[in-house]
Specification:
Number of domains: 1
Distance between the termini: 24 Å
Helix content: over 70%
Structural class: mainly alpha
Number of strands: 0
Radius of gyration: 15 Å
Number of helices: 3
Order of helices and strands: HHH
């Protein structure tokens, strides 16, 4: 997520509980992926888990961006 997107999400998350939950989930998934990146070797199970987490992280970002879009268009 770009810095400007993340700043906007953090700002809106103060007023949107759903967005706040998605952002926290996104950060937790990001931390789990970092754990995998620090390993020199991943087992087959770890590779599968890494892929699953990447998909979940992307899905959470998509949902966050949809909420951000909704907030931006409600303000107009």
């Amino acid at each position: 997520m770009e810095a400007t997107e993340e700043a906007l999400v953090r700002q809106l998350a103060d007023h949107d509980q759903e967005l706040r939950g998605l952002y926290e989930e996104h950060l937790a998934l990001k931390r789990r992926l970092e754990d995998f990146r620090h390993k020199l070797y991943l087992t087959t199970e770890e590779e599968l888990e890494k892929k699953r987490i990447q998909k979940l992280k992307l899905a959470s970002k998509d949902r966050m961006m949809a909420i951000v879009w909704r907030h931006q268009h409600q303000a107009q």
